[in-house]
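Predict fold of Methyltransferase domain-containing protein; 259 aa.
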Amino acid sequence: MTGVHTSAQQGFSTQAVTYAQGRPDYPRQLTGWLAATLRIDAQSTVIDLGAGTGKFTRLVSTLAPELIAVEPVAQMGAQLARLLPDVRLVNGTAESIPLAAASADAVVCAQAFHWFSTQAALAEIHRVLKPDGRLGLVWNVRDESVDWVAAITEIITPYEGDTPRFHTGHWREAFTGEYFSAPDMTCFPYRHVGSPQEVIIDRFLSVSFIAALPAPEKARVSAQLRTLIDTHPALKGHDTVAFPYQTEAYACRRVAQKA
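Predicted 3D structure, encoded as tokens:
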């Protein structure tokens, strides 16, 4: 797993099952975005880069039978293989994609690009895309205008350290115009509905830098989350919780390099 951040190596290796259970899916409206904006259809070859346990892969597979999942963490890939046994799964990183040049019509990255937002990664994505190919970046972003969601952020943020995160915006710095057009955003509201265990405890214990914590600190985070569930008026006594997200989808067009 050379080139994979330590938090991802440790956290995603140990918490792959929790990740599969607790991470939200994606709004169905994204299928229209994938088709209209990224131009994905039944004839497209699509690479899901940093595919993880296959949450987003499953959605893309409804549009594109020719789908290749690239994932460097073996334990995450094992979850994907169980979920989607018919999808081709290869071991690789964004800087070293084991596929031929100009072999894909689109590359998609869901909950992943902030891990590898470098010029080297964009150069490699550029290489595997056909001349008129598209890059799609997707994140489920917590709606922190809801007070209990903001409270969860306060619980986990002290452990963040140097872990790459979407919310910092640093991922945008890689887009200099050399390989791709500037990201163009479309936003969809989404609610992850399930038990408090699934949508809060499992979800946040699967955050890379929380999953990588020593057991006593992880237990402390879990206890804080359970206290929030047991005491907040919007959560207390509820068997089902609707966790609010804004799903941000960014489309980038491959640009021809200057001679």
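Confidence is low (pLDDT under 50) at residues 5-16.
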